[in-house]
């Protein structure tokens, strides 16, 4: 079945369309500087082909979530799931032929690349009987298939680049038609861009990008100036699904709007100098603490993992007689202290540390420690934070607040709460990194921002660089500490 999607009009005013069936077999590359109309073009293509083919959108800025209300796309928030859950959702998308938008706006660059790689690989690895045709639209593709290394981990970059390469090179046989859009051709991996057979080139100004665009369009270098002169919303089209010769297309109107923000000029306020002084230097009133977040009802993925591990792992018979009941808490506390002090435990999965905990308890004469995997994870986090007895009421309040956080953030949060409860200096980035099991100070700064965005803490840094952190729901505040520092 042939279906043509009308994108807009050519310079003569005649309708210009793209052959959807041909697009599924040949893939599409869209290029243009910021403000050239790339997202508008993608939105037009998605709206006009909705209902004709399954659509999967990788959306790093959350611009396309508005398709959900009008066209029934499901929105998957990338920050709300683990990698395993993302892969499971992607498999179900292929099975049920659902059109979705994977929104990554709440993730940082490394998290976006990791999530997109997991999602695309799961789409690619679907069983043969689920290989239905689907448009896979990737906006800002240079983020997921960079031409060179960046600030993200090399392992994450390779995984993301590999997933994008599979989509563009081998996806056709699995029914996946890649539609990728980028601001800079020079920043997009060449082996990903080269697999597209259809091109829509928008306005661009840098010579290196114009040269690559001209090469892809089969134009001479002197003709590349035409790309610089294109109006916003106008693209040069070439390819078997578009036109056999470069054709200028002005993209038509769309029915849904972007969730993003387009800056526009507006009149400035005109207060008097006296009013301006009062507005800028008025005393700051103390704001009441925000309401406590509701506890997370669903179990954490890592809790399910260690529960499954504990259920499947047989407990060996004790080699020595069982210790007295009153000695058990002391043995558990001692073993936890040993685990916290052991540098080899940093960065290990919680399930692996739980196995080591059971072994050490048996060696100490406690064959069956009265601590299930979830309770162990909580006790270990408290031990890393320097809390000897997490069952005390005020620590239970702090742990209840932390239910809104991923379980691996419990230890740094409790370390902050412990310092705030006693009015001790704010923990340093190095101390928080040790409790979190990382050596990256940048990751700790992102962690603090994440916790603060959920209204669990309030961070303040004075002009001397000393940091103070409050836990407003409990009324606790640390003394000023050394705060952040840059690693040499």
Summarize the structure.
The protein contains 18 helices and 14 strands. It is of the alpha/beta class and 488 residues long.
Structure notes:
It comes from Sphingomonas changnyeongensis. The protein folds into two domains: 4-251, Rossmann fold; 301-477, no CATH class. It has 18 helices and 14 strands. The chain has helices spanning 20-26, 38-49, 67-71, 83-96, 109-124, 154-170, 190-193, 207-217, 225-228, 273-281, 301-312, 328-341, 350-363, 373-384, 393-401, 410-422, 429-436, 441-453, and strands spanning 4-10, 15-19, 28-31, 54-59, 74-77, 100-103, 134-138, 176-182, 198-201, 234-239, 243-251, 458-461, 467-471, 476-477. Helix 4 packs across helix 5, helix 12 (328-341) packs across helix 13 (350-363) and helix 16 crosses helix 17. The model is unreliable at 315-321 (pLDDT under 50).
**Overall CATH class of the largest domain:** Alpha Beta
What is the CATH topology descriptor of the largest domain? Rossmann fold
Strand content: 5-15%
Oligomerization: single chain
Mean pLDDT: 82
* Annotated CATH architecture of the largest domain: 3-Layer(aba) Sandwich
- Indicate the overall shape: globular
How many strand elements? 14
Strand order of the largest sheet: 2-1-11-10-9-3-8-7-4-6-5
What does the main sheet amount to?
11 strands, mixed
Number of discrete domains: 2
**Could you name the CATH homologous superfamily of the largest domain?**
P-loop containing nucleotide triphosphate hydrolases
Q: How many helices in DSSP terms?
A: 18
Q: Which stretches of 5+ consecutive residues score pLDDT under 50?
A: 315-321
Q: Termini distance?
A: 62 Å
Binned, the helix content reads 25-40%
Radius of gyration: 28 Å
Sheet/helix structural class: alpha/beta
